[in-house]
Amino acid sequence: MADGQTLGIERIGSSERIASLDVLRGIAILFILFMNIPGMGLPSFDLHDPRWPSWTASDQRLWWVQQVFLDGTQRGMLELLFGAGILIMARKAMTADGPVEVADLHFRRNLLLCVLGLVNAFLLLWWGDILLVYGIAATFLFAFRKLDARALLGWAALFFVGLVVFSYSNYDQGVQSRAAYERVQAATAAHRPVSADDKKLAEPFGERLTSLHTLPAADKKQADKARKAVAQHNSGFAGYWSGVAGYWLQIMGFFWIIEAEIVGTMLVGMALYRLGVIQGLARTRVYVALLVGGYAFGLPLRAIPSSDFINAIPGPHWEGILYDLSRLGVVIGHVALVQLVLRARVGRTLLQPFQAAGRMPLTVYLFTSLLMMWLVFAPWGLNMYGKLGFTALMDLAAAVIIGELAAANLWLRHFASGPCEWVWKSLAYQRRMPFRKASGGTEVPPGLVPAG
């Protein structure tokens, strides 16, 4: 390969990295475990109910905090960062004569990410993998690299409108089911005949109402479903693997909805990079406005249905129509909060450890799958599946996050990148990347690396 061609696809050097993006990525890739661990350690996908096997006051408080402040937000932060990363990697392909090798690199990186996603799902056994769907979405976003922020936000709006329409259809079904349930109750009380259509239409709301007033452990149908899922999980590798594959296939049934969310959010990330927001270049008042606006819009829309669930109020909740928009609002609020914290010296000191995790997110993410699915919750490991309540799971997640944060910082004292990143980049760039850290390398405090 000619020197000029090679220059077009040089990897991002340590001095070129935008440290605040690494901090954001580190927080997101670690804190996503708070959302993933119930699916890893409980038959939550079978029950769609967080109240198994316990629902103590502590469980309820922590679940509420998780739903309001964290649900979908760490994934959302990663999607924003992915969008920004597309523009960073394509920085030398913004002109008509930009090197085609940049496009080749983009496609190789994301196709390899898809492969890693399949490895995560079917070998490491984490059925909630995000790498595959991220790789697919990012593959097609290279074509948007030359658009300005306004155009990128316009395209993102189209995807979010589609998501709102989909959410409205679900809400409307809930409204119709509740109305039918009320008609059935009124007809029964008045000893009038009930139509078969109303009886069938009322079933979902009736089941929802019953489940909210009965804990899964006291509901024979739900308890049997949970015990069956745990028994399959513990039946050996074949049963464990088939259960994981089944969950993954069910999720893929919503593939287009998942991709619409991811693509829309990545486009917003690209726009925020164009505006200098996500990499910390905007003025302080911009971040204050984004923090206040994002939280003021998003948090109430998430708090109301979460509180209603705890109080056994069945809904349907119109707030659910705006779920994806409220999630985006909270995500942008989180990004603004981190950028504001990084503007203070004490804030940089507090958040700098997350920079290491953000430089080796693949390793952290895949190691978490290995640790949880092959040791902690595996039938041949500690066999804790279905045994820990929500509070215990959150405590376990916090302990793992602290351990991984320490390990990432220790690792990067001696090595240039994480082992999974090294393999991924070596394959993507088609040459062996540096593995050990060059002597004399120093970390740049978050927020002090230019975005050039």
Give descriptors for this structure.
19 helices; about 450 residues; disordered C terminus
Secondary structure layout plus pairing:
Layout: H1 3-8, H2 19-41, H3 44-47, H4 57-70, H5 73-89, H6 100-122, H7 131-141, H8 149-189, H9 196-212, H10 220-233, H11 237-252, H12 255-274, H13 284-310, H14 323-341, H15 345-351, H16 353-359, H17 361-376, H18 390-411, H19 419-429
Helix pairs in contact: 2-5, 2-16, 2-17, 2-18, 4-13, 5-12, 5-14, 6-7, 6-19, 7-12, 8-9, 8-12, 13-14, 16-18
- The total beta strand count reads 0
Mean pLDDT rating? 92
Helix content: 55-70%
Biggest sheet descriptor: none
State the secondary-structure class: mainly alpha
Radius of gyration: 24 Å
Oligomer: single chain
Count of domains: 1
First CA to last CA: what distance?
26 Å
Strand content: under 5%
Number of helices: 19
Domain DUF418: 272-430
Keywords: Membrane, Transmembrane, Transmembrane helix
Transmembrane segments: 23-45, 121-144, 151-169, 247-273, 285-305, 325-342, 362-382, 388-412
Protein name: DUF418 domain-containing protein
